[in-house]
Design brief:
With about 100 residues, the chain is mostly beta strands. The chain has 2 helices and 6 strands; from the N terminus they run E-H-E-E-E-E-E-H. It has a domain of about 60 residues: SH3 type barrels. Helices cover about 10% and strands about 35% of the residues. The chain has a 6-stranded antiparallel beta sheet with strand order 1-6-2-3-4-5. A hairpin with a 4-residue loop joins strand 2 and strand 3.
Length: about 100
Amino acid sequence: MVPMTTATGSTLRELEGRRVSLALTDGSRLDGAMLVSAGRGRTRTLWVHSAGSDIFVARRDVVAAWEAHPVHRPHRRTHAHPRGERNGETWHAQRRGRARGPRR
């Protein structure tokens, strides 16, 4: 995890491709945005992707940047059909008509 740092070009490039939080000079923050590019050469903007939109932020407007904590998503269990397996085939295989089991 990269700690909170002042927004210099080299430290921002270390965060490229990661979810970051940015503190801006106007007091606002961008939390959980994907840092697509910190810019190269004379480019003075950061390219971030947040809430389905691409945002370009002037590097001089960024006070601090740090890696955001990943969003916790609960583990999804695959559902079990109430009838369970019959004759060695799964419920889904039976529904698709591709049952694998003993023929009667």
